[in-house]
Give the backbone structure.
Amino acid sequence: MRSPLGVIIFLTFMMLLDLYVFQAVKAVAQSASPKTKTIIYGVYWGITILAVAGFLLFVYSGPDLLGKKIRTYLFAMIIGLFLAKLTALVFFIVDDLRRGIQWLAGKLFFNNTETASLGDEGINRSTFLSWLGIAAGGTLFGSLLYGFTNKYNYNVIRQKLKFANLPAAFKGLKIVHISDIHSGSFLDIKAVEKGIELVMAQQPDLILFTGDLVNDLATEMDPFKEIFSRLKAPMGVYSTLGNHDYGDYVQWPIAGVSKEENLENLKNVHQDMGWRLLMNEHVVLERGEDKIALLGIENWSAKGRFPKHGKMHEAYPGAEKYPFKILMSHDPSHWRAEVREKYPDIDLMLSGHTHGMQFGVEVPGFRWSPVQYMYNEWAGLYKEEQQHLYVNRGFGFIGYPGRVGIMAEITLLELV
């Protein structure tokens, strides 16, 4: 986006969108007094100019000028305003299509274009749809602003899982599953600390982390290593890598560090915190006289734009002899694409990655998020035959510094 052509294209699209939305603003303000109209138009174009200026400032200023916190919120507000106008655009296009069809029908069949009114005293449908579009866009933008306050609102989800083949000694095992920490996005150390305290309050026997510790750089964990090293469990803390952990989304080298060195540094971060990073391998967990296998692989995605570093053919051999198996794999698309097909004796797979898109609706009996159009399994528990998949909604956040409807998650799984 820093390229002049990319900036020009985006700004051109923004201005065309603003001009189109402004027609609806004029429609809803048509009955206002001249003074009120001036105020409404001034506010609209004032916000637009500020958004354009903010966009240019974000693109061309360095992080030292504004600081990480201001840049994060500035970008989120600009994109939020843009998405709100796109949402309103849907209603305006419907109205324009309606009026176009009405005009054409009047010309062809009635020779009459004066058919847009519901009645002499009724509000015409054009104004109604304009109001509806503005209300929809405004509601979206307001929700995104409110979501800024929710990003550290950790939700503990408790789930009991029944397995007929679970060894007796492991019945009642409590596993805390967390995913997608994204430490490079954190802005409030105290709030993160409360999340860690909430994890430990669950008194887990085992803690499993399924990838995306950072956004890009291993150094993003420097302010948080001490806090996350407080995660302890009698049976250990185990982790895997996610797509962001490989540093694929920035240009290397950075501060003299290569991409390969950054990954090695990140592996050392896991070790420094006392976490056992599983790299295409399995370990045996013992409780009493019984044993189960815990497998962990690098990122493996069925989606083309994400890497396939995971190697089940390395992690699985030797695990088949244990009666119960848990797999940690960051991307839930791996479950249907490979695990279900080739490894039917994997009893439970734990994933993250989707964040529930940090936006959606979850109420009893109904769930919706835009991410469901990209991932069949995107949040919570899924089961087919005897295999289970649990997708954690993420401990942290990335891009949008907030959550609307899909809260940050700490999962407590109890095996029964």
